[in-house]
Each structure stands twice: as structure tokens, then as C-alpha cells.
Amino acid sequence: MHGFKGGRVPKGSRRRTGDVSPPTRARAPHPPVPPDAHQYFNRELSVLSFFRRVLEEAQDERNPLLERARFLSILGSILAEFFMVRVAGLKQQMLAGVVELSTDGRTPAEVLLEIRQVALELMRDARTCLQRLLPLLHDEGIDILDYRVLTAAQRAAADTYFEQVVFPVLTPLAFDPGRPFPYISNVSMNLAVLVRDGEGQERFARVKVPQTLPRLLPVDRQEEAPEGGSGTPPTNLVWLEQVIAANLSHLFPGMEVLEAHPFRVTRDAEMEIQQLEAEDLLETIERSVRERRFGSVVRVTVDTGMPATIRDILTDNMGIEASDIYTLDPPLGTSDLAELHTLDRPALKFPPFQSAVPPALRAGDDPFADIRREDILLHHPYDSFAPVVDLLRAAARDPDVLAIKQTLYRIGRKSPVVESLLEAAANGKQVAVLVELKARFDEENNIGWARSLEEQGVHVVYGLPGLKIHSKILLLVRKEGRGIRRYTHLATGNYNPVTAHQYTDLGLLTCDEAFGADASDLFNFLTGYSAKREFRRFLVAPINLRTGFQALIEREIECVRQGQEGHLIFKLNHLADAGIAQALYRASRAGVKVDLVVRSTCILRPGVKGLSENIRITSIVGRFLEHSRVYYFRNGGKEEIYVGSADLMHRNLEKRVETLFPIQDPRLLRYLRDDVLAISLADTAKARLLKADGTHERVAPSPGDEPLNSQQWMIDHRARDVVAPS
Question: Minimum mean pLDDT among 234-248, 374-388, 459-473, 486-500: which range?
């Protein structure tokens, strides 16, 4: 090669200063390891263990074929987010000279080293899984083809699409003494291109693969395609970056294209908001979202064909270490496999089901009368989210509704919830909305809705300094007779109809006066000034949730000391708070039976003699994302269940506004105990048991028994007593 010897920056060329590595700090001495470090799993490695369970769903032959591909896409997406947030945070700690150890006694550098090993294995195993899926897809008439093996007709179709649609969008960016190394935006797919000019000089350029176009391009005309083995016309697809690479001569006329290799960049997406210095939090968040695209690089994935010279160009100019490069078999960016799930092939997907409406909401057209009759529990996605939307719409139009107050965390791009709030404001009602602008990766949606609400005259509050508002709560104040009545909806999940059909969540509709009073006090805390430290029913972080929750665990320990049976059942997403873990260890040592269903992160080590032999931990990964938080306390036979937005993590207990609320209706308590919790604990199809060494093993059914899939059980049994929404 000529020109770029060793892949170094040409003399006189300019780097982007934002991508230059900061000077390396002197390594600080290793702090002493805490004596209880062996009692915990590492938080980051526990998250990666959850990712492994997601990969297992892609590998599971019992899942429909396109669902297996979807699980691969989910793995690619959550791995990218993990690097953007968790890996970026660890790198920031290293650069800041932080020497504080994790709960399991590791330095940030030690954790990063293990993350690389585990994450690289995950990425490679995902590609092995994809290679096993491709022949199965072929058997169903779905092929992801390499551009080099396309037929003449298919190649012509791909090239025509390039000329008519792709070419006008592309912008090649050169790198030479007059033009600095281009910025590579976050999670973008790119081609590193090497060309030779007429004088024999080799030059480097970058071409960004447009994110506005489908990544998998169909290359057959359906009317001309013969039928596949499934009796449907075949679907032949090719990766967009391969089509671009094959047509680079159009982008570099008069140059000889020597080689082109895909690469993908992941950047630091954590936003540090100095709220006390930010006069306008909305503008600060908007600016931070824009800057996120150009955060420091934390991962670059390249394919196995990329030569060292081009890797060196990327390494030298993006301010990264060799350990930040992950070399993988193509394709890169497996999150785009989600496009396969859009194919109209219902036989290759989970059977569709219709979310239903509970009997209590079928009495008539007055949701307020329904709620006055009894508390109503909605269990999504098995129950429809429509009753929540209908309640808000009814409130917006009801002349007796005086005020609406609501928290919004992840809203989504299209929101009937916000539309009802806008209608309520237009109808002259007092509307106050807490919009959490710092909901990671949903900031742009939330900013747009916040501006729309403000323009309609809604009182919009953007949060509290140093805290995220993660509570899910709706308060309706209604004039009834000579007084008022407060109606509340409290939930574990977001006010988002899309995720309500994908996540398992719980929501309570009630007009209990104590709940209404607590909701009013909570909103006053959020919108005004309040030093309130106690609530009638709620446990609220960061006010009294930690102390109240730990007191409930200690009460269970006291029950055992008095000769009663003690039993705790917690179903949650994450358990990563050392204080709560120690409380559960004390409960186990006292003889309390502890059953935990933890979907993802868990630092607690079960089954250790003298520490946690009474603790059993399972994780369920299946069709729906397990998202509800349910906390059961046997309490000497006077059972209590709390439900809410909070996981058992330090951030939830100290750095967020969270709400847990008790289930008071005995009917609903029995449902949560006997159906939701008991069936989750009995799962033998999608549950994995966490062992003392940190590995998970599938929970197998007893000999002769059929596997029990708790999510499918809920689909089948929840529908017995409900009807589909109109």
C-alpha cells in the first residue's frame, strides 16, 4: 500500500479534538477489599448474565423462528445500551481516578476487563446463533443473502434501489491534511473505505450507512418470485451496507476502490446535568441530547475482514484503546434483525392474543362508578391498557372533574394519554403534569410532549434537583355532591400503550380516601415545597421507602422469633442494594423463607450455608418483559402485599422519587399471591435458578409433568373471566 503506512494519520492531517484520549492518570493503589465482598455478585456481570438468558431465548427451538430472531435483535440493542451507560460510567470513574470498590470488591478497571471477556463471548455466541437460524429461515422462504451471491436480477434490483434511493442520501467524508477525521455518531453503521487516486496515493474515507432506510433490503419482485417451501412467496434480503459497498464507485468517481469494511461505534450516552446551575432544565436536556451523539467512544465493532492498518486508523483517531475494538463475524449491529419481525408471517411468531377488560369495568360507561364499587387491578398485557386511557378521556370531558395530576416517565411518540391531558386543559380543567426529562433514551419524546402541554396551558414540572421522578401515579379530583372525591391510578409501568402490550405490569384503580390524600401530598412534594416525612399508606422514596421497607423485613424476622412462619416473596427487576441484601441475609439466618423472582440484576448470593440457605432466586425471561414489582410479607398470617415502581437498588431508594402502595382488597391480594406470585414461582418453562456460584440453570418440571410457562398460563387463565375490549 501507498500513503497510509501502518494506518497512521497522514502528516499534516487533523484529528477531531473531541475524540482524543485524555492523559492517562497514575494508577492508584488497590483499596482493601471489604470483608463481606464475597457475599455479593458483581452488578455489571449480573446484567450480562441476564443478557445471556435473553440469548438463550434466541437459541430455544421451542420459540417461533421470527421470535428467535427478535430475541437476537433485543440482545444487540440492550448490549449497546449497556456500553453506552454502564461501561461508559466505569470508564469515567477510571479517568476521574475513582478507587472506590464495587460491593464485590473490584476496581473499575477489573470490572471492565471482565466485561470485555463476557461481552465478547456473548456477541460471538449471538452470531453463532444467527448462523444456525439462517438455514431455518431459508426453509421458510426467508433468505438473508450476501451481495456476492445475488442473481443477476437480484443484483439489478439492489443496484437500482441504490441509484434511486440510497445514493442521494449518502455523504462520503474524506480524511486528509485538509479535512479532519469525521465525527462518527453514536450507534451508527459505517464503511471504512480505502481508495487509490490517479497518482497512486491511497486515501481513507468514511461513508455512513443511512439510519433512515431499512437495513435489510428486499431484492425480489413478488410477482416474479416462485413460491417457497411454506407456500408463500420467498423473501430475499440483502444488507444495505453490502449494497453500498458494491456501488462505491458511484461515490468516488475516477478513484479505484480498494476495500471497504463496516464498523459500528458506541458512545458514552450518560448525561451529567448540573441542575443547580441550569436555569432552564428543558433547554439543558435538549442540549445534552444533542451532545450525546458525540460522547466519548466506548466500543467499536469491526468485522473479521478489516485489516490492522484500517483498525489502527480508527483507534488513533477516535481516542480509544485496542481493548475497545471488538472483532466479530458479520453482521454488525444485530439489533436491526428486528426488521425480520415486521414480515407478514404470523405462523413464525407467537400466536396473537387479545388483551381483555376485567369484569368490574364492564358494568357501563361510567368508569368513576365502576371504581366506587370496588378497587380494580389491571394486569398488563393480559388486561388491556384501554381502561386507563378511557378513564383519562372521560375525566377530560366530565364537567365534574376539577383537576388532573399525573407523572409521566416514558411516554412514547404517540400518546393518547397526553392527548387527553391536552383536551382536559382545553376544557378548562386544572392540569399539572410531572414530566421526567431525564428518562434515559426517551428525553426527546418527553421534551416534545412537555412543550405541547405547556403551549396548552398545562402546569408542567420537570423534576427535582438530583432526583428522577419514576413514580407512576394519576390523581383525578372530582366534584361529587357537596364534596369532592379523589380517584387514583398507581402502577408499576409507564403510561405507554405500546409497552403495556409488551411488558408485564400492574395498575390499581381506587378511590380510597387515604390513597387520594397520599397522592395529593406526593404531588405537593413534587410541585412545591414540602418537608413531609410520613404518608398514610404509601412508601415514598427518597422519604420513607427504605426505612419502611426494611422495617417490613425486620417484622418478618420478629414473627419467626415468636414461633410463627416467616415468608417473603419479592418479584422485581433488579436487586442491587447492599443494605437490602443484608436485611434479606438476616432474614434467611433467622429462618425466614425468602423467594425472589428477579428478572435481571441481582447482587445477592443465594444458597450459602450460614448466610442465605433459605433464599431461592429465579429469573423469568420469556415472551413479555417481566416488569412488575410485587412484594409479599406473610406477617404472621396477616398478609400484606406492596406494589409499585421501585426496584431494590440504591438509585431507586435514594436517587429517585418512587412509590410503593399496599393492596388492601382481599380479592386482589389473593390474586397477586395465588396467581401472579405462586405461578411465577412454579414456572418450569422460562425460569432459571440462580446458584451460589453465579450461574443459572433452567428449572425443570417434575418427571411426568408438562413444563409450566407462567406467561402463557396468565394468557390462558386471565382470559377466562374477562372479555375483549370493544
Answer: 459-473
Domain boundary pick from 527, 554, 587: 527
Mean pLDDT of the chain: 88
Helix, strand, coil percentages for the chain (3-state, nearest 5): 40, 25, 35
How many domains does the chain fold into?
3
Q: CA–CA separation, 639 vs 641, rounded Å?
A: 7
Residues recorded for the chain: 726
> Active-site residue 470, yes or no?
yes
Handedness of CA 103, 106, 110, 113 (dihedral sign): negative
Interior CA angle at 275 toward 274 and 281, to 5°?
120
* Confidence bin at 153 (pLDDT 50/70/90): very high
CA neighbor of 617 nearest in space, from 608, 627, 604: 604
User: Which pLDDT value is given to residue 438?
Assistant: 58
Residue whose grid cell is 412467496: 233
Amino acid, single-letter form, for residue 424: A
pLDDT at position 284 over 70: no
Could you give the CA distance from residue 127 to residue 79 in angstroms, rounded to a whole number? 14
244-256 pLDDT tens trace: 999 999 999 999 9
Residue 123 makes CB contacts below 8 A (sequence gap 6+) with: 79, 301, 326, 328
Clarify whether residues 661 and 571 are in a common domain: yes
Residues 167 and 86 in one domain: yes
Task: Mark whether 430 and 313 lie in a shared domain.
Answer: no
Query: CB–CB of 689/679 below 8 Å?
Result: no
Question: Could you say which of 261, 379, 470, 696 is catalytic?
Answer: 470
Lookup: cell for 6: 501502518
pLDDT for 34: 85
Compute, in degrees rounded to 10, the torsion defined by CA atoms 65, 70, 76, 77: 180
> Rounded to an integer, what distance in angstroms lies between the CA atom of residue 389 and that of residue 497?
9
Crossing angle of helices 416-426 and 386-397, rounded to 10°: 10
Q: Show the domain range for 191.
A: 5-24+35-348
Q: Write out pLDDT tens, residues 67-97.
A: 999 999 999 999 999 999 899 989 988 888 8
Confidence of residue 527 (pLDDT cuts 50, 70, 90): confident
* 339 and 418 together in one domain: no
**Residue 56, C-alpha cell as written in the block:** 438463550
> Residue 158 domain-assigned?
yes
**CA pair distance 89, 102, nearest whole angstrom:** 13
Maximum CA extent, the chain: 91
